[in-house]
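User: I'm writing a short report section on ligand binding and want a predicted complex to refer to. Could you take this sequence and farnesyl diphosphate and write out the structure as tokens? A short remark afterwards would be nice.
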Amino acid sequence: MINPQSHSASQSAVPLKQYLQERIQLIEETLPTMLPASWNVPHPLAEAMLYSLMAGGKRLRPIFVLAACESLNGSPATALPVACAVEMIHTYSLIHDDLPAMDNDDLRRGKPTNHKVYGEAMAILAGDGLLTHAFFTAAQAAKVTGVSADAVLTIVEELAEYAGMRGMVGGQVADMGGEQGLTTLEQLAYIHHHKTGDLVIFSLRAGGHLAGANAHQLDALTEFGFKLGLAFQIQDDILDVIGDEALIGKPKGSDEKSAKVTYPYFIGLEASKQEVERLTAEAKQAILQAQFPQPQRLLELADYLMDRNH
Ligand code: FPP
Ligand code: MG
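Assistant: Sure. The structure tokens for the complex follow:
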């Protein structure tokens, strides 16, 4: 095993907490500017889109885009449009996931869900608007930051692949079919990998593409995202059982209430926690073995996710 402590990269001069605050601020300042002010958008639609987009959240996926780009000596400014694009996709998925036809939730990020404020039809359309605008926003990387059209084409293609039918949407469909007594642990892993992991993988690979990653580094980012994405969703399952409602921004126990299959349901809380630790350690090894110029921030993010309480 390679020792994570042996990398004293300059990147870690700023403590992780400060790095996260600075990056979140950058992302939150940029997100609303990505909706062109000159476009004549019906007022309630723009308001409903911005309501969920600006409702807080950890901004993890955009941070992964920035951090992966920075780990290869790319600049955060270069990565901002794609970072905003993935947050738009994530936010649309949450709006639709909360709808009565899906999880029927009233609270998200500590606030009433989109359909509770704007009604179901507008919430569906706000999600549609964010999904579509993500692709416009990703394309801006070539127009405003000088990233090559080739790299942006690859990113747009991967966004469709990882967020779409073989990625997050497919994972959500598998999740809807999940049922205690019928679904196996292997099927649950499939659900988690696609529903949650694929957007994490996309974010990391996109940051890599933006910084000119080679094939070996892209493979490492993919493995890092694959393992971390599963660890992240298992942690989500754990927090649904033992989390603090004020911190997680929604009622806990919702998985059990809706008879969802989860890692704690299959293997119990303790083994679930161990699984998160094992996957996180393996994810870090993938990065350590691939010779990144600045690996430290990605390694710190992995530890931060394992220890998160919301
Ligand atoms: C919480 O993210 C959300 C997840 C762990 C992913 C759940 C996946 C879906 C709801 C997919 C839905 C897909 C469709 C097509 C409807 P987070 O903890 O990063 O939330 P935050 O952004 O609020 O911090
Ligand atoms: Mg849900």
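A remark for your report: The chain is about 70% helix and 0% strand. The longest helix spans residues 215-242.
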